[in-house]
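Take our chain:
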Amino acid sequence: MGLMQLKDLDIRNKILMNKLFKMRQYFSGEVKYQQNPFGAQEAFYYNIVLTDKNCDELRKRLLYRNVDVGVKDEITDNCIMCFEPDKISLYPAIEKCYTKLIQLPLSYNMDESALKKVALRLNKCLS
């Protein structure tokens, strides 16, 4: 089944990228997302945004509005905390990202109204 899907990988990636760009059109200025400053084609694994809010609190607010997001270990590992917790202060950006990143839903079956709904609900929770 995986081999059959490989032949459509470029098309599937393009569909997801178009959905991602569509969702971004509805983000307020408070939503920060990764951008490629060099104009090359973007690559992504998850639909991740950086906020100024604590991700756990933001997750609760979004769940209340029927938007399930990923946070912390659901997105990435805080390796320094796992292997050398006494050195976490040497890596402040890691700790900030770990507690401020959220993964927004993004899938092939989301139409424009669903993409807009997620973005607008995120905007509301951030304001």
